Amino acid sequence: MERRFHFISGLPRSGSTLLAAILSQNPRLHAGMSGPLGGAFHTLLGELSGRNEYSVFISDAQRQRMLRGLFDTYYGAEYSAEMVFDTNRSWCSKLPQLRELFPQGKVIACVRHVSWIINSIEQLVRKNAFQPSSLFNYQPGGTVYSRSEGLANGEGLVGFAYNALKEAFYGEDTANLMLLRYETLVSNPARAIAAVYNFIGEKPYAHDFDDISYQAEEFDLRAGTPGLHTVRKKVEAHERTSVLPPDVFRRFENDMFWLDPALNPRGVLVV
Hints:
Elements: E1 4-10, H1 16-23, E2 29-31, H2 37-47, H3 60-74, E3 83-87, H4 95-101, E4 107-111, H5 114-127, H6 144-152, H7 157-169, E5 177-181, H8 182-187, H9 189-200, H10 217-222, H11 246-251, E6 269-270
Helix pairs in contact: 2-3
Protein name: Sulfotransferase
GO molecular function, one term: transferase activity
Pfam families: Sulfotransfer_3
């Protein structure tokens, strides 16, 4: 069976796990939370570069076969689905490589108001007050200001993903890129999923948005952040109150470049 690959990427706390949980209701599809392939891909790409003293023996065709082989090997006989969505925030920074390896592969980038992303992470930290989180290298110190700064800088959980998203959005490989807003996914899941199916060229499936199932408790507990990948049974929007100081919340309120058509010169699909 020739398995087809697509990718879920974008910003953290923006619905990627929820999207994967919904898609996995379809027996033809497999999707899950962020996995190891993004890191393995990055590492192998580096090891096949000029820093390897034997790189003179490695052609681009060989590099492509080895990188493609990561996916074929990882998603082996244990996975019966005809189509796989691999999730990783780094995929937005790898669009040129993905285009060459998977010409028909689509990238669904989940996005959300950045202030609410920071707020969501801060709520998790406070909820698990006695368990330092892997999101901050298990360090128990800091304040909401240092945590938000650490998240937003270029190497931070949010900052890296945000910069990778902008690289993809303004790059030359946008034909296979779609942005899916968290607000759309939770308020109108039928519309959001219909757009995903249309974008990947797949026939519709009757999803049950009132009975979503996804389990990642063991991973979240080990990460010191219970609830990190919790998905509610029913997809619906919830009224929220920010726990961020007003100045922290305002710092990120104008970062949603995807909402302004004037800032979308390549006409990337935003749902």
